[in-house]
Amino acid sequence: MYDFLIIGCGFAGAVLAERLAKQGKKVLIVDKRDHIAGNAYDHYNEDGIMIHKYGPHIFHTNSEEVFKYLSQFTEWRPYEHRVLASVDGQLVPIPINLTTINTLYGSKLSSSEVKEFLASKAEARKQVLTSEDVVINAVGKELYEKFFRGYTKKQWNLDPSELDASVTARVPTRTNSDDRYFTDTFQAMPKNGYTEMFRKMLSHPNIHIMLNTNYKDIVNLIPHQKLIFTGPVDSYFDFRFGKLPYRSINFEFETLDQHQYQVTGTINYPTSNLYTRITEFKHLTGQKHSKTTIVYEYPTGEGDPYYPIPRKENQEIYNQYRKLADEMPDVYFTGRLGTYKYYNMDQVVAQSLALFRKIIKENDSQ
Ligand code: FAD
Ligand code: UDP
């Protein structure tokens, strides 16, 4: 008899498996894929270059707790991600910063002058509710069109005005020349990759791993006390309130017989092309190799559910599932798909650590 059956071997499931196993609980963790690490899975391709199968994953967090927790399972390689956007035939930093403005407009404005410039362009919105409001409120229509509208349409197949503010609010606006994509306190990549980190997390005698297995095929056959579900919450309930929309991506990898393809980790293509961005893995991993692998991201409505789509009508459907989920004493839901939240890796780790504490508390009071 297992104490816990955990569905999904990504961050959400693996953190709980590790924590519970250390408490002496017997855990079976199941994934329908043929590997651990969920969407953070990385591996060496046929040319010996480390790639991320489900798109580029850059670790960043402000949470010391999360960073310390993961540091038990990996060493780190310091890495600060930088992104350029291809706009008006030039490559300029995104998030929009001092350099972006001066390059695009051929100006030599100081930081305070850029602030004034952006204030003069910005169109104050009484309420900032949508992803369009966020950007237009900060930088005005012209920069919105150049950097956000087309990219967002490609990525989500929605106009920014149809998406919650939280989506484009992920990308700030700066008036200094800081060109890092993230400003979190901790920014680093697991030295030997994510999969290796997961291997260490899961190597405990109390954890059994079952891959290539849809949980529906075994859930009634394997005795267990409690279930933790990190797959899509709507699928757990057989879509009884309708399907929750997710956005997917087709990743196209290309290995080139050259040391480097582009000057920085990622280049975004807000208005041109069908793909949103190209990432070159060697920038992220620091790997030395005579060849290089890049990945193009083509967003699509079909395929694996990667992105919950933050907008009111979807939240309303999710709330119905959430209500059902809350009524089940022996089943817990967590993770990006299990709680339909556009979470980064560190947020998922924090969420699962919090759920672990809740489970232990409940256990103690029984
Ligand atoms: P997942 O990793 O999706 O794990 C869920 C697992 O459940 C999957 O392995 C799935 O196979 C399994 N499963 C589902 N249904 C079943 C079933 N019926 N039976 C058995 N198993 C099942 N975050 C960052 O912090 N930085 C980044 O740079 C970053 N980049 C990203 C880029 C892309 C393109 C994407 C899609 C996401 C990115 N993220 C990034 C987010 C990150 O991937 C997620 O926050 C994190 O992987 C979520 O972990 P999870 O365990 O909740 O879900
Ligand atoms: N975005 C944009 N232009 C950009 C970068 C981002 O319009 O050059 C918008 C787009 O809607 C995107 C969102 O901001 O989906 C969040 O961007 P982020 O890079 O955080 O997306 P992720 O890495 O999660 O795909």
TrEMBL record:
Gene for this chain: glf
EC number(s) per entry: 5.4.99.9
Record GO terms (molecular function): UDP-galactopyranose mutase activity
Pfam families: GLF, NAD_binding_8
Main enzyme class: isomerase
UniProt name for this protein: UDP-galactopyranose mutase
Family to which this protein belongs: Belongs to the UDP-galactopyranose/dTDP-fucopyranose mutase family.
Annotated Gene3D superfamilies: NAD(P)-binding Rossmann-like Domain
Domain UDP-galactopyranose mutase C-terminal: 146-342
CC cofactor: FAD
Keywords: FAD, Flavoprotein, Isomerase
Ion transport keyword on record: no
Flavoprotein listed as a keyword: yes
Origin species: Chryseobacterium nepalense
